[in-house]
Structures are given as structure tokens and as C-alpha cells.
């Protein structure tokens, strides 16, 4: 990473932090990434400069973890993933059950804090809604 890349990504993370702090307490990690919680959903934001003029923010929300291995629940999550406009849903099968994440990456260079906060809140509110739905389905199937 060049010094210019580092400066551009740092500036974008500063903007993202200002946008998020309108709604959340934000922690800055040692590597510069941002982390926060939207309700019970932990989230992280990173910035990457893919090319000159193309710097993206990547938002990852951990929607649920250790859900019971349940085919219907996995199918429901997969169907929900196809409906999403803001993010890609991932399901990982572990020894303890299923983990679900929501990831969204978008070009954000030049966005002001207010529109940036709107976009970020659309993603994290989707993650929170999905968490509630998945936990209700998991409890109903138990």
C-alpha cells in the first residue's frame, strides 16, 4: 500500500466514523478498521483503495452465530439472501452450528457523512431485522 493509498483509506474511514457516530459508539481498531454494535449485531467497517478514484468501504455484520443446524433455517437464510438489496448474506457451517454474516461493499469516496450514514444504516438495520427473523425461526424450530 502506498502512502497515497493509506491517506485515501484513512480519510474515508474518518468519514465513515463521523457517519456512524451519528447513531453508534464506534471503536477504532489498531489497524484503523471501525467496529460498532447495532443492537445485538456486531459490525466492522474497512476501507480499501482498489484503483485510483475507486476506494470502497466494506461493512460486515455478524447477524447470528451458533444457530442450530436446520435445513429449513438454511433455506430461509438463502432465500432471504436473494431478496437483499444491501449486502450479501453468507452462511458458514461450523462445529457449533451455523453462522450468518451480511457483507456490503460499495464505492464511498467523496460521500458526505449524512448520505454515508443513511447507506450504512440501511445495511445494519437489514442485519438486525434478519437476526430477529432467524432467531425467531430457530426458536420456533427447536
From TrEMBL:
InterPro entries: Put_sensory_transdc_reg_YbjN. This is Sensory transduction regulator. It comes from Saccharothrix mutabilis subsp. mutabilis.
